[in-house]
Design brief:
By secondary structure, this protein is α/β, with parallel strands linked by helices. It has 9 helices and 6 strands.
Length: 184
Amino acid sequence: RACRDAAEWPGDLGVAVNVSAVQFANENFPSVVRRVLEATGLAAERLELEITESVFMADPHATKRMFDRLKKLGVRLALDDFGTGYSSMSYLSRAPFDKIKIDQSFVRGATEDNSSNAAIIRAIVSLAQALGMITVAEGVEAKDELDLVTSFGATLIQGYVFAKALPQAEVLERLQEGRFAYEI
């Protein structure tokens, strides 16, 4: 349904879909993705698959094959909740991610005195930039958090600072009217 809805959105707006470790391990997953793209008419580059670090616990060769098959379809890959699982710098150099999503647990408290979260966010953004990846700061809810993550160079911001989850019709209406602003 997400792909069907996104196919109707204006311009080149994309849609991000979470992928479970079970789905990722399924040998037929790329075929399922291809069929969904064909059935909905959504351009592959508008689909982003969000994958957590847990997928790397499986066979590294099978993981690489799966990444290669998905990238061959033309979809984008995002490493979701970065830093909360089994973070390893080695897989970042091997995996073809387009984006790193900084988990909201690092955003929380990052503006407080003596918090190490700000340093972690800065390091993740710097690493992503060096690897040519886009960064998303997740769970940004306050203006001071927004100021902090943007000052570090986070490419995109996700969170209630802009809006809570909205029905598709309201999102489209806001896009047409240019009504996305801080809600705090």
